[in-house]
TrEMBL record, chains A, B:
Gene3D superfamilies recorded: lambda repressor-like DNA-binding domains
Keywords carried by this UniProt record: DNA-binding, Transcription, Transcription regulation
Organism from which the protein derives: Parapedobacter luteus
GO cellular component: cytosol
Stretches assigned to the HTH cro/C1-type domain: 11-65
GO molecular function: DNA binding; DNA-binding transcription factor activity
Pfam families in the cross-refs: HTH_3 (PF01381)
Lineage: superkingdom: Bacteria
Protein name per the record: Helix-turn-helix domain-containing protein
Signal sequence residues: none
Length: 72, 72
């Protein structure tokens, strides 16, 4: 699994675990919903600034975000 | 400290701890040395694909890379 797919899947898992919609995350992060969808589907090479915006919106630190076996 | 600066400082710390030069990391990662220098100086919004290339070259997982208080 490539890194874009791993990051996208992790973002989706965290979002769903918090019962947030893409619309809500888009509104709160000021990042376009279609971009969020593409990132979650592994089709975007997200930058660290946008990744931080999304993780902040999702209420998870980057330390906890990457703290899974997928990233070890 | 913004995320670009944090990531850049962390990359430099890991590189220096492993006694690697920017030239060596550039050669092994196939990423331009001046780009690496700019990332380390917090002037680049690095993508997840390039960040993974650099952490792989530095021999550190993304899980361990982000496992510092700077990212919590």
């Amino acid at each position: 699994m490539d890194i874009k797919t791993k990051v996208g899947a992790r973002l989706r898992d965290v979002r769903l675990a918090k019962k947030l919609t893409q619309e809500k995350v888009s509104f709160d992060s000021d990042i376009d919903k279609s971009y969020i969808s593409e990132v979650e589907n592994g089709r975007r090479n997200i930058s660290i600034v946008n990744l931080e915006k999304l993780t902040l919106t999702l209420g998870i630190s980057l330390k906890d975000f990457f703290n899974t076996t997928d990233f070890s």
